[in-house]
Design brief:
Layout lengths: L1 E3 L2 H6 L5 E5 L7 H14 L4 E8 L17 H11 L3 E6 L2 H4 L3 H12 L2 E6 L13 H11 L2 E4 L13 H9 L3 H8 L3 E8 L4 H4 L4 E4 L11 E9 L2 E10 L11 E6 L10 E12 L6 H20 L10
Parallel strand pairs: 1-4, 2-3, 2-5, 3-4, 5-6
Antiparallel strand pairs: 7-8, 7-12, 8-11, 9-10, 9-12, 10-11
Helix pairs in contact: 5-6, 7-8
């Protein structure tokens, strides 16, 4: 997959005539995948397949104002590539772009930059200065610039709700991991580099990996989760704790600690993906390390049992 991150790069990229879908794509849920699937079909006719999104510059918002994301930039790129897209555009959202009239955006970015021949979008898509651009405008300009517009209706879940990033966030905030995964079409994943912890788990035969996710990553409620970890193309089952390690003395940043079943290799410094499948219990402080160990054994047993029940299927197995 080709990645384009700058305005100059876009104009000089030499993109062949393309099919483009546009949006934030936070989470890449089933609704987003429906749009991308339509673009991929256009690729069968020889068009370049493109997903276009904006990249906000650093310090656009203060940390307090920043809304956590379902997918970090790295995670989004990985998912887009796995879907089979030819090109991902992360267009810089500068002051000039912010004030660009929608007609100018279509002409300069989509037509001249991406040589668009087909635009795929949802019915409520808006763009341009003060969100003046919409599907009606895209439809009017289609004959002017010679592209085809395809408007895809919203995808709905089994309850009839429109699938959106907002809905995914609401379900995640309540620890409803199964519902989140159904809305996404894949397990909710937390990515992070493996760092050194206090090595307590190793002392009682349950070595764990510790990760500090990107600060912009939206995490589920603190607690214990049935989980799996991708390592070198394979996925291993395990159990994860999201939170602050309240039983252990010291101040710890919020992180993810995972006990990987039947696995004991040095993973320090590696960036790994932890997939979440089920919220087992809330995080709690125990009176002693011995009580903590006893509970971790129960947590691991429950996680193994849930996987063995066949309700949770990981992408690949050891």
């Amino acid at each position: 997959m080709r990645l384009i991150t700058g305005q100059t790069e876009l104009l000089s990229a030499g993109v062949r005539p393309s099919a483009v879908t546009l949006g934030k794509f936070d989470g890449l849920h089933l609704g987003h995948r429906k749009l991308i699937g339509e673009v991929l079909k256009a690729g069968e006719d020889g068009l370049e397949t493109v997903a276009f999104t904006f990249s906000l510059p650093p310090r656009t918002f203060t940390e307090r104002e920043m809304q956590p994301v379902l997918l970090t930039r790295r995670e989004k790129r990985i998912h887009m590539e796995r879907l089979g897209l030819g090109t991902l555009v992360e267009y810089p959202f500068t002051e000039a772009v912010c004030h660009m009239e929608p007609e100018d955006f279509v002409e300069q970015v989509l037509v001249k930059g991406l040589k668009v021949k087909r635009i795929v979008t949802g019915p409520d898509f808006c763009f341009g200065y003060r969100r003046r651009g919409n599907v009606e405008l895209l439809s009017r300009l289609a004959d002017v610039y010679g592209y085809e517009l395809t408007v895809i209706e919203k995808e709905r879940d089994a309850k009839g709700r429109i699938i959106s990033s907002t809905l995914v966030r609401e379900e995640l905030s309540q620890g409803h991991v199964e519902q989140v995964n159904e809305l996404l079409g894949y397990p909710y994943t937390v990515t992070g580099e493996v760092v050194h912890g206090n090595h307590l788990g190793r002392t009682f035969g349950m070595p764990t990996i510790n990760q500090i996710p990107a600060r912009e990553k939206l995490l589920p409620p603190n607690g214990v989760y049935t989980a799996a970890v991708e390592i070198e193309g394979k996925t291993y089952r395990g159990v994860s704790n999201v939170g602050y390690k309240p039983t252990i003395e010291g101040n710890y940043p919020k992180g993810v600690e995972t006990y990987i079943f039947d696995f004991d290799r040095d993973l320090y410094g590696k960036t790994l993906d932890v997939q979440l499948f089920h919220y087992q219990r809330k995080e709690q402080k125990f009176a002693s390390v011995e009580e903590l160990k006893a509970q971790l054994v129960k947590d691991a047993r429950e996680s193994r049992s849930l996987f063995e029940s066949g309700n949770y299927v990981v992408r690949s197995e050891k």
